[in-house]
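Person: I keep going back and forth on a fold encoding question. Show me how you would write down a chain together with its backbone fold. Please set it down just below, with no commentary around it:
Helper:
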Amino acid sequence: MAQYQQQLQQWRRRRRHPLTRWLGCLLIASSIALPSADCLCPAASTATVARSRTRAAALRSSASSSFDVPAAAAASAAGIDVPESTESSPSSAPAGRDGPRSRNPSHSRAARWHKDRRRRMLLKYGDRIGPLERDASSHALALSLLCLSNASLFAFSLLSGKLHPLRVTLLALFPGSMFSLWTLQILHDLLHGSLLKKRRRTFLGVRRKDLQDLLLFWGSMPSAFGYYLYLKYGHLTHHKSLGDERSASLKQLFESDQKEFEDGDVLFVAHRMKLKGEVGPTFNIGGKDITMSISKTGFDAWREGRPIRNACAFASSFMYERGMLVVNDLVVAATGRNYFFPNKPKEFHDECAKYCRCAVAVRALLWKLAGWKSMLFLFLSETLWSIPPHPACAMFVTNHGSNVDEDSGNCVPSSSTYAGRWYSVFTLGTNYHCEHHDFPTIPLHRLGELRKIAPEFYPEGSRDNVFRIMRKVFAKPEFYACMDAASL
C-alpha cells in the first residue's frame, strides 16, 4: 500500500492537466483492484480480467495522448478545440451500435464518426497504438526531407530560367509536384505536433511552440502562393468541422469574423463537391452587393456522366483561383489587408501581411535571378499534383466523399487511397487520410501501421487504380464528407 501512496504523491507533484491527474488516480486504484479480484475470485473469467486491463491501458493511452503530448498542446495553443485533445473515457459516453458514441455538439457528425472509431481502436489495441501517439515523431526524417524539398524547389526554380516553358512544365510535373506535396505534408505533420520529438519542450534553447511557428512560416517558402495561411488558420478546425453544413459554407467562410476558418478545406472542395449553404464572397461594388465565386462557377459547368468535361472544368477553376491567390498576395503585401475576408480580426490581417511580404520578397529574388519562368515552375509544382491526370490527384479528390459502407449501408465521410508502397512514398503518406483523421498526432511515416494493427477498421489490399478512381469522382460529384447523408 505504501508503494501506491508514493505513486499518488508523485502524480500530485507533476504539472499535469487536472483531468489527467484524476484519471491517473483512478487507474492506480484500478491496478490495485484488478490483482485482488484475480486472487479472490479464481473462478472468474480470465478473459474478463484481461479485457479490463486492456481498457485500462487504452485509457492510459488516451489520457496521455490527449494531455501529456505537446502535439495536442501545440494545436490548442491557437485557441482551437482539437479533436484529439477532447477525448473522454469510453465509459462516459452512451453506447451505440458499434460501441461508445461521442456526443460532443461542437464537432460535426463526420468528426464524431472518427472520434468513435478512435475510441473503439484504443479499447482494442491501446497497448500498440498508444505509443505511436505518445512517442512517435517524424523528427529526423521529416526535417531532412523538408530541407531537401525546399532546397530542390529553390534550385529547380533557378534552373527553370534556362529552360523552355515546356521543359519547365515537365520539371514541375516531376519532381517539382512531388517536392511541393512533401512540403505540405511535412508542415502538416508539424502543425499536428508530430514532427518534433513529443517529449521535449525546448530545442537548442528555443521553446517548442516558437520553433514550430518559425518552421511553419519559413518552411512554406519558396512558393507561388504557399500553404502557410491554410495550415495556420484552416486545417485544425477542419478536423472538428468537416462535413458540417453550418461551417462548410462559402458564405460563412468569407464573412466570418473569427480568426480561424471554420473549415479551411471548403476552399478546395468547393471546386469538386456538393456543398450546402450560401455562396461567397460578396463584394459591394457601386452600392450593389455582387457575389463572385470562382469555385462555384467552375462547378456549375459540371455535367453528370461526363468525367473529361468535369475534370477540365475542375482544373480550370482550380488553377485560375490559385493564380488569383498569387495576385492577392501582392495586394496584401502592399496594403496589409486581405480583402477577401473583410470581417476577420486585425491579428489575421497582420499575419497575412507579414507572410505575404516575406513570400513576395523571396519570389522577387527568384524573379531577379531566373526570370518569370521560376514563378511558372513554382506555380505548376503547387497545382499540378491536385488536378488530373496527376496520380496524386486521386487521393486529393477522394479524401472526404460520401462513400457507402457495403456492410452497414452507412455513409463513410473519409477514405484513403491504397495504390502500393511507391504511391505512399510519392505522396509521403498523404494517401492515409482516414488513418490521419482517426489519429491526427501519429506521424506521416507511421500511419500505414494502423492497417496492420487494426485491420478490421480499414480496407484490405493495395491495388487501388488511381485513374479509375479519378474517372469515378469526376463522372458524378458527391456531397462533401457525407454532408447530405441520413446516417454515418
